[in-house]
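Ligand: protoporphyrin IX containing FE. Inputs:
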Amino acid sequence: MRHIKDNTTFWCINDIQPCDAEEWRRLDGSCNNLKHPARGTTHTPFYRMLPAVSDKDCGPNSKSDLPLVRRVRTNFLSEARVPDQTFTVLASYFLVFISTDVSNLHDTSNEPTTINYILWTPYCCLPKGQEDKMCAPIQVPADDPVHRFSGIRCFNLTRPMTFQSQGCRKKDTFPERIMSATPLFDLSSVYGNSLDKALEGRLFKGGLLKYEVEDGRIWPPQDVNHTSCLRNQKPYETRCHKTPSDEINSLMPINIVTIWFWRLHNHIANRLAKMNPCWDDEKLFYTTRDINIAIQAQILLYELLPMMMGYDNLINDGVLYPHGFRDIYKKQLTPQLSMEFPLTLRWLHKMQEGTIKMYDANGTYIKKEAIVDLSIRTGYLAVDNNIDYLTQGSFRQPSAKMDDHVVDPDMAERMAGIFQVSQDTFSSDLAKNRLMYIQPYVKYLEHFSGRTISSFEDLAEYFEPEVLEKLSELYKSVEDIDLLAAMWVEKPLDGGRVPHMFYCIVVEQLLRTMQSDRHWYERPNRPHAFTIEQLQEIRKVSIARVLCDVGDTVTHIQARAFQRIGPENPMQSCEEIPDINIKAWKDYTCSKKIKSPCD
Ligand code: HEM
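Predicted complex:
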């Protein structure tokens, strides 16, 4: 009653239908865990790998003697453009798409179409901001290397939304972050996070998602009001998507990969429908969704992560199992995301290239655009063949180098495009690290390695000597070092490209994610489980195949499309890129069921 009166039901209450142990993975994530049906839905509370650090009155980080986040950022990460020798920008596109599946609108969203501190609360640096408890602006030091002459002394920022800020729990309790995304990998950017939204996306015919055809290209349905495409350059750029997830219209990489997986759904559904004419819309839709979700997970786990984290490392730690079925389900584990996981994924901002280059299908360079100027601007994709050129560029352009101490200048100074004079993604990331009450780096090191760390010297194994010296200059005590700041400059782990700490946190989360997911695609005994033949077909997919199937103008591509084109990874015809054999899903009972006209 209180939530109805306070108009907080959206945030605080989930209406869940009774569970059926044999049903498909639900669109709203409920009933994954039969004992705790609400865990797995939107607003599932986070767990913490380590308890929060806080002062007794739960205020903002009490450690006032920590170095300013912007100072830490500019000391550790300088601004330039350095191409990676291995990864294409497609890898960064896929990673942000995956991040959006489990976290959302980049922690900036307040209402579906507004961006909390970018549009909704843009005043945190003004006197008004001092009265708003959600404001947590970032101070820019007077000797800042970029802003010493600009006069900018503050970046706008708001705190993460919590069950307390949204009115679900009493204000004087410890703030717990609230998130709209469902915590397991279930393609939320395509199917949304709630039942009613998901239904809006369905065509209810042939298992398909709604679609439109314009200039010979297939698009998700349009939002004629353009509510979330504020940067469309009207009247020329008019397209704006209306899909179950609002994320699609946000960042360009999320947008384009969601379009691909939206189309992939219909591509698979059409093949299934043709082969199994006796399947109804419901069966076609849920089977297709199940395959689509498995494809996303297969590509992430078996194609992209080994390049970043080391194949042998992931095998040894039980993340990969490149054989037949495996059943690692633990019903006592509830589906939940750790607070540390999305924070750790922010480290990947380092690999984000700021200038997106576009090519035609012959590989001829056409033009470039700043990625920060493509946010909330779906219309750009639909004009001047831009989606074709962006698609071609995605597997031709190198990403920014991920394991150096250099970040893209646009990501570092003007992430919010025209909406704010200056905005530094990395400073926001570090500020959020503190605003989420995350324990210091050394506590995580102790947690994962079992070692006790009491001095900077104890860290010699993890940092280069010059970096360690800088850490000791910036932080008064080794116990103060922020988790994310340490990851920015930690040495990469053996056999991989990511810092040792990134690896440990991501592995712990992935294991929990797989173990707590009753519908995990590699399980032989989940409801509507794949047969072994079907699983072997899923194991054949690659991001190159996805682009061959649904990417605009893609007829040739390198087999490992997250990796740059080269003699070891040459362009080849799509005909040569392995495809799923859809016959593994053939339902032989259909042929019996087809009615003869004489019946
Ligand atoms: C490698 C590609 C990228 C990855 C993997 C990535 C991932 C993430 C993740 C995991 C978060 C935290 C979400 C949360 O805590 O719920 C985040 C936050 C954010 N990202 Fe990205 N992102 C990428 C690219 C971009 C790009 C291209 C932009 C802007 C043009 C961007 C802007 C932001 C912003 C504004 C935030 C919120 C910062 C805050 O907390 O206030 N990201 N990103």
